[in-house]
Amino acid sequence: MIRREFSSDGRLLVLVVSRKIHTFDVLTGQERHVLEQEGGHVVGLDISQDSRRLATCVWGRPVEQKLQDGRTIQTTEKRGLFLGV
User: Fold this and answer.
1) Buried-most residue among 47, 62, 67, 77 (CB within 10 A)?
2) Which H, E and C letters describe the chain, residue by residue?
3) pTM of the predicted model, to two decimals?
4) Minimal CA–CA distance to 40: which of 54, 56, 24?
């Protein structure tokens, strides 16, 4: 999932791709920072008014779980396993 957010002045763009958070200067198009998210999925982000801070909300650390029939599924530590039929 790709998430994106612009700063309030429109000069900063933040893109979340997989577990990497990229920040770009919109005027020059240059990438300013790349941050590696250690675990989980970024489900929310916000940029401070002065564009100096970035807050992220992350859901769970990814876990691979083996099912009784031999298949494996991806889930997270903080979320219960749900199997639909």
Assistant:
1) 47
2) CEEEEECCCCCEEEEEECCEEEEEECCCCCEEEEEECCCCEEEEEEECCCCCCEEEEEECCEEEEECCCCCEEEEECCCCCCCCC
3) 0.65
4) 56
- Tokens representing 27? 């005027």
Cβ atoms of 59 and 65 within 8 Å: the answer is no
The domain locations on the chain are 2-76
What is the tens place of the pLDDT at every residue in 26-69? 999 999 989 887 666 777 888 888 888 888 777 776 677 788 88
Q: Hey, how many other C-beta atoms are within 10 angstroms of the C-beta on 74?
A: 8
